[in-house]
Structures are given as structure tokens and as C-alpha cells.
């Protein structure tokens, strides 16, 4: 039986059915030019049709599973972002209107940036290191704080106290094959430090005299 007749009878896409049949392990023959493929008459046509439908169902189920996983990942990312945004931080050691109920210990977050030194010679492009650093400082400090909040979240905490920053400057160099010195890009790093805690909002009724 010709595959195009099977496809027409069961509402399949003929090209897609042919491509599947070639990989399926079922016996088939190729007719004359433009005649297309035919399924061996000794085989159970209904079995082949059911196998093809099953393949479509599996593909559909996989698509649905991937869509669900993507939706779950997006929801988890949104929930994490909301939890991160709700974490309070301070350079002090308390929050007005809140009581610290648990101390979970020291945490930190880090980030770094490389700044090119520029090139030398006729076509030199010197780098304004100061301007480049200041332009990057806000970004790496924000990233370090985000990592600090992630560390607090991982401990089940909702606040960080005693937050401060440590800064690191590196002037890396290395030897060349000719015995000279190669000056690598400057590296500037920042570490955000603090103590992860759990805080609870005070009950204003208990503060009445």
C-alpha cells in the first residue's frame, strides 16, 4: 500500500510519514519516479499507523513537558527575584521596627572586572584607567551585593547586617618567550561582607507604655 494513500486515509503529512518510515525499521519499497514509497503488504498497516501516532503523542508529550519545565523555571526565577528584593541590608547592626531572631553567621559576595591598559606605539590607544574603573565600580559592587543576598537566601535569612566592602587591585604581569615582560589587564575586585540574620517585624501593640 502506498504511503501517500495511508497518509491521506489517516490524515498524516505524507512527507513526515515517509521520513519516519525510513527510520522505523518497517519494510518498505521505493516505486518508480514520482510513485513514492509503499509499505510491504505482508505487514500490519494498522500497527504501523499506531506506531506513527504513538510517535506523535510522545513528541507532543515532550513538548508539553518542556513547556512545563520552562514555566516552572520562570516561576522559580521570579520567586527568587522577589525573595532577593525583599532581603534587607544595612551597614549597621539592627533595623528600626524589627527584632533579630537568629544569627546565621558571616557571608560574602564577590565580583571583579578587568581593565585594559591600552596599547603603545604609533597607533596607541591609552586607557583612562580611573574613568574605566569608576564606570565599572557600580556594576561590580551591585553584583557583589546580589551574591551576598543569594548567600543569605541560601541560609534561609531575610536580612544582612554590618555590610561593608573590601577592594582589591591587581597589577598582573607575565614573562614573554623573548624574556621580556607582558603587562596584563588590571584587575579590580570587590567583596561585600556581612552577617546573615533573620528579622521579624515588631508588634506595635507590645510597644505601648
Q: Can you lay out the helices and strands and say which pair or pack?
A:
Elements: H1 3-10, H2 14-24, E1 28-30, E2 37-39, H3 45-86, E3 88-89, E4 98-115, H4 129-154, E5 159-170, E6 173-175, E7 181-183, E8 186-201
Parallel strand pairs: 3-5
Antiparallel strand pairs: 1-2, 4-8, 5-8, 6-7
Give a verbal description of the structure.
- By secondary structure, the protein is of the alpha+beta class.
- It folds into 2 domains: 3-81, no CATH class; 87-207, Hypothetical protein apc22750. Chain B (Translation Initiation Factor IF3, 2-Layer Sandwich), CATH 3.30.110.70.
- 42% of the residues lie in helices and 29% in strands.
- The protein contains 4 helices and 8 strands; from the N terminus they run ααββαββαββββ.
- A 4-stranded mixed sheet has the order 3-5-8-4. The protein has a two-stranded antiparallel ribbon with strand order 1-2. A two-stranded antiparallel ribbon has the order 6-7.
- The model is unreliable at 205-209 (pLDDT under 50).
Q: How many structural domains are formed by the residues?
A: 2
- Uncertain parts: 205-209
Number of strands: 8
Helical stretch count?
4
Q: What is the top-level CATH class of the largest domain?
A: Alpha Beta
Could you tell me how far the N terminus lies from the C terminus, measured between alpha carbons in angstroms? 94 Å
Order of helices and strands: HHEEHEEHEEEE
Q: Could you describe the largest sheet, including whether it forms a barrel?
A: 4 strands, mixed
Examine the secondary-structure arrangement and name the CATH architecture of the largest domain: 2-Layer Sandwich
User: What is Rg?
Assistant: 33 Å
What is the average per-residue confidence, as pLDDT, rounded to a whole number? 84
- Would you tell me which CATH topology of the largest domain applies? Translation Initiation Factor IF3
**Strand-residue fraction?**
25-35%
Q: Which strand order do you get reading across the main beta sheet?
A: 3-5-8-4
Please state the overall shape, judged from the principal axes of the Cα atoms: elongated
